[in-house]
Design brief:
The protein has about 425 residues and is α+β, with helices and mostly antiparallel strands. It is built from ten helices and 19 strands. It has three domains: about 20-185, Glutaredoxin (3-Layer(aba) Sandwich); about 190-315, no CATH class; about 325-420, no CATH class. Helix 7 (about 245-250) packs antiparallel against helix 8.
Length: about 425
């Protein structure tokens, strides 16, 4: 998923790893494994679902391999895992899929244990391997690396390339006839520093700046809000390689909506549909922009207002917040008990496991995992609770039954809700 918390793909910021001289010969001058290079020097140190916990890539020589870089918190990654299992079963011994994860064994094994009840994942999985993420320059997940039976890296793709036709051709011809993703990590970047001047100049003298650029080659889509940790906490907004509509949705953030409006709560009255219809072709970067605003402390409370003015001046679109009756799912307290456990929060496409946490936390997360529906918290609970719900979180009946076990009721009602209206006509917005 090339995305922000809300949009997109959630990304991993990694640097260049240190490897042995033998390994470095298989990489390019930047220190990364790239297309056309040998992968035989790769070592696996923490394999599960395999006959050995440690082995080298040469153990798989003689058959094509697809490395699936993923994370338990990545919604698109998790959604793809059952498909990867089906692909492995379809092609059997003529292909090997290996999952690669850099999280702890405890977290990953807890994930697989829960998935066992829903859709078992029995593919070999390498855990805790940050070196492998670094050596392939992986900044965002999911990421798929295609390696032929001779151990040569042939392609790096997104999930759309994982078709029966492409895989069959790869197994038969050792080739894949699709363009590959760029190695986004080949340009190191410090996201705690200003977009341009901070990575190429003196940040200590910077007091105020506002900047819009086109696509920043070599970087993934991401953004940070004034709440994010940096030397400019409270007075900086940064968005890298974002579509125009996401910039506007960030600009209409507020204390009630700290991450802006999701696309499900945005109404578009704009003739140019490319502003908000994402092009699935990752090679088309014409609609992606970078924006950064740094203000002095005296202007910190005006940061989003200034951002909106910048966007209107440059892009010529206008936004306003409107209210309209909407079908919502309202959570009501019937007899929810106070938590007695230690703090814990885990959420995926298929479960919620929460201990000693406020109900508001799960309601916020639900709108991330289920962007088709709107959820409202009217429990009025002043104490933390426990939840353990399993099933497809897009299924309202699963949620209703799950909440009911803990003295909570999810009911459908019509409620006035705020929406962001984007137009290309200022008069529509009362201008």
């Amino acid at each position: 998923m090339n995305a922000t918390k809300k949009y997109f793909l959630l990304a991993v910021l990694l640097g260049i790893g240190l490897f042995s001289q033998a390994r470095s010969r298989a990489k390019n001058d930047t220190g990364y494994y790239t297309i056309g290079k040998q992968a035989m020097a790769i070592n696996f140190k923490h394999l599960i679902n395999y006959k050995r916990t440690e082995t080298s890539f040469s153990d798989f020589k003689g058959k094509p391999v697809i490395l699936d870089f993923w994370a338990t918190w990545c919604q698109p990654c998790v959604a793809m895992l059952p498909k990867m299992v089906r692909i492995q079963k379809q092609f059997g011994n003529s292909l090997q899929i290996i999952l690669v994860n850099q999280e702890t064994e405890e977290r990953a094994e807890a994930f697989f244990s829960r998935m066992q009840k829903i859709s078992p994942i029995d593919l070999p999985c390498e855990l805790k391997n940050t070196d492998l993420f670094k050596s392939f320059g992986v900044q965002s997940v999911p990421n798929y690396v295609w390696i032929n039976k001779e151990g040569v890296i042939c392609a790096v793709t997104d999930h759309e390339a994982l078709t029966t036709e492409n895989i069959s051709s790869f197994i038969k011809n050792d080739k894949i006839n699709i363009e590959t993703k760029p190695n986004v990590a080949e340009q190191p970047y410090d996201y705690n520093l200003p977009l341009l001047s901070g990575n190429n100049g003196n940040v200590n003298i910077l007091q105020y700046h506002s900047i819009i650029t086109g696509y920043y080659s070599g970087q993934v889509t991401r953004y940070s809000t004034p709440m994010s940790k940096s030397r400019y906490k409270g007075r900086r907004v940064m968005a890298c390689n974002c579509p125009v509509d996401l910039l506007y949705r960030i600009a209409y953030s507020s204390p009630e909506r700290p991450y802006g409006f999701p696309s499900s709560r945005t109404i578009y009255q704009i003739k140019d549909t490319t502003v908000y219809k994402i092009n699935p072709d990752w090679k088309d970067t014409t609609g992606l922009f970078c924006y950064e605003l740094i203000v002095p402390e005296s202007k910190a409370t005006l940061i989003y207002e200034i951002m909106r003015q910048d966007l209107e001046r440059y892009f010529g679109f206008y936004g306003t917040v409107i209210s309209k009756p909407t079908k919502c799912y309202v959570l009501i307290n019937r007899n929810a008990k106070r938590s007695e456990g230690g703090p814990q929060f885990e959420m995926s496409n298929y479960w919620i496991k929460m201990k000693n946490s406020p109900v508001s936390r799960v309601m916020d997360a639900l709108e991330h995992y289920n962007q088709m529906d709107i959820f409202i918290n009217e429990t009025h609970l002043d104490h933390p609770i426990d939840l353990d719900i399993e099933g497809d979180l897009r299924d309202i009946e699963v949620l209703k039954k799950g909440f009911a076990k803990y003295g909570l009721e999810l009911v459908e009602e019509q409620r006035p809700q705020d929406y962001l209206l984007l137009t290309d006509n200022p008069s529509t917005n009362g201008r």
